[in-house]
Specification:
The protein is built from 15 helices and no strands. By secondary structure, it is mostly helical. The chain folds into two domains: 58 residues; 205 residues, MetI-like fold (Orthogonal Bundle). Helix 11 crosses helix 15.
């Protein structure tokens, strides 16, 4: 094994650059947190404080339970809507993509490659091209202002199907053959063997797709007109659209911090499996 040489000056410079980078990325988030912990008057007074205040519990409880009056829904309700949408989108994409990749790799049927490339070609179509016909279909089916309308139209994923297909193709052919010899049906092979050995790929895609679903803005903006189905990102934008009135910045900042927490929790709780899935350590 080759020895890694250590240079103290280079190590010191590297750590300094890392600290500077962390500061640049973390300082704006810290300012948002400070603004969410002080009264509105202190935010509007220059210079704004840079030390957290004592009104943090009041601001966050107001945001979660009441929110901004002009929005019509509390940040707690919109946070729940965002979580439902992100979980539905990520879970639905993974389930459908796994079954599609399973069919493409382990079954032989006419036009198998044609169907796969038909799915893959959809990656070349921008979302803006597909969004109007998709909206018309959702409206005709009566799914506007519903969780089904938020989740179902964006569940299909060519990317996840392609990644699962590539992973399944790396599995030795002896494995499904052995399962078949032992009397396992295709679905038994799928649930008992294929799903357990795909956990790192599953985790990596879940993190990516959860954040994708959480960050959706344009589609929820189109299909939701009732406040009870607003996602948190839409709600924060509504909080800012106050016209000549004074924005409740302490509530907006508290809602912004709340919007950061679920993606951070998902990434931190699944970071080890995510890294393994991305680096292909178990494949």
């Amino acid at each position: 094994m080759a020895m890694v040489e250590r240079y103290p000056v280079l190590t010191f410079f590297t750590h300094v650059m890392l600290i500077i980078g962390v500061f640049i990325f973390a300082f704006p988030i810290y300012i948002v947190f400070v603004a969410s912990s002080v009264p509105l008057a202190e935010i509007m007074r220059a210079p704004m404080p840079i030390i957290p205040g004592t009104q943090i519990l009041q601001n966050y409880s107001t945001a979660i339970m009441t929110g901004v009056a002009d929005v019509g829904a509390s940040s707690g309700r919109m946070l729940m809507n965002s979580i439902i949408m992100a979980l539905g989108v990520s879970g639905g994409k993974i389930v459908i993509s796994m079954f599609a990749a399973f069919a493409f790799v382990f079954f032989r049927f006419p036009f198998r490659q044609v169907f796969f490339w038909a799915i893959f070609i959809t990656l070349m179509l921008p979302v803006q091209v597909r969004i109007l016909p998709t909206y018309e279909v959702v409206a005709n089916l009566g799914m506007l202002d519903s969780y089904a309308g938020l989740i179902l139209p964006i569940i299909p994923s060519a990317t996840a199907t392609f990644l699962f297909r590539q992973y399944f193709m790396s599995i030795p052919k002896e494995l499904p053959d052995s399962a078949k010899v032992d009397g396992a049906t295709p679905m038994r092979f799928f649930w008992s063997i294929l799903v357990p050995i795909s956990k790192t790929t599953f985790a990596a895609l879940f993190v990516i797709l959860f954040i994708f679903g959480w960050n959706q803005y344009l589609w929820p903006l189109l299909v939701t007109t009732k406040e009870q189905y607003y996602t948190l990102l839409i709600g924060i934008n509504r909080m800012l659209a106050v016209g000549d009135q004074q924005a409740e910045w302490q509530i907006i900042m508290a809602s912004t911090i709340l919007a950061m927490l679920p993606p951070i929790f998902v990434v931190m709780s699944m970071r080890s499996l995510f890294i393994q899935g991305m680096t292909e350590q178990e494949k």
